[in-house]
Amino acid sequence: MDISMDRRRLLGAAVLGGTGAFVGATALGSLAPEAAFASGTSEVAPGAPDPDFAEGRVTGIEGTLLIVAGSDGTRWRIRVTNGSSVWKLRPTTFGAVRVGDGLYARGVRLPDGSLAADAVWVNIVNLHVHVASIARNAVHFDHRGKRIVGWVVPGTSAAVYNDTPPIADLSLMKVGSHVQVLGAWIPDTNEIEIATVYAAA
């Protein structure tokens, strides 16, 4: 079976209001935040844009259609269906998306040029930073000379130390150490909500 054609058929049917069960990104590809930054499944020439991947900032919402301004000037129309999966710090629903949010989306291009989304990651950030200070409910990071406040979200934020399973205790990080942070940006601020920190204990 041609997996790319099967994805196109499933998502195209979802956009057109087809009936039946649809599999979302959790079956067609991971919704984990790390997956937003992974290479796509399309055969794309080196240096060429991936036609099945979009990024930018939401400028409008029309029903279940997201109008997105890409950082390169591209105007995206991203269709979110009952076969799409949405991440905004944690798996959520389309109703959590707001105008002004940033996003990455992966899916398949439809004949009208829109993108039928397998997965949408809202406000996701992937930062390599230094730990400036650690408080009870926040970690302050330095990123290229700028301060970023990382909020600890109970029940969600976790740390991975030396490739061990994730744990909720972020206090084992060392001030001054270099870490990688996946999280959700709070638009128009220097703040993020922490999903996962990768660090050495």
SSE layout and pairings?
Blueprint: H1 3-15, H2 25-28, E1 53-62, E2 65-69, E3 75-79, E4 85-87, E5 91-92, E6 102-109, E7 115-122, E8 124-134, E9 138-143, E10 146-151, E11 158-161, E12 178-185, E13 191-199
Parallel strand pairs: 3-7, 4-7, 10-13, 11-13
Antiparallel strand pairs: 1-2, 1-6, 2-3, 4-5, 6-7, 8-9, 8-12, 9-10, 12-13
Structural notes for this entry:
This protein is mainly beta. It folds into two domains: 3-40 and 50-122, Beta Barrel (OB fold (Dihydrolipoamide Acetyltransferase, E2P)); 124-199, Beta Barrel (OB fold (Dihydrolipoamide Acetyltransferase, E2P)). It is built from two helices and 13 strands; from the N terminus they run ααβββββββββββββ. It has helices at 3-15, 25-28, and strands at 53-62, 65-69, 75-79, 85-87, 91-92, 102-109, 115-122, 124-134, 138-143, 146-151, 158-161, 178-185, 191-199. The protein has a five-stranded mixed beta barrel. Strands 8-9-10-13-12 form a five-stranded mixed β-barrel. A hairpin with a 3-residue loop joins strand 8 and strand 9. The N and C termini lie far apart (45 Å).
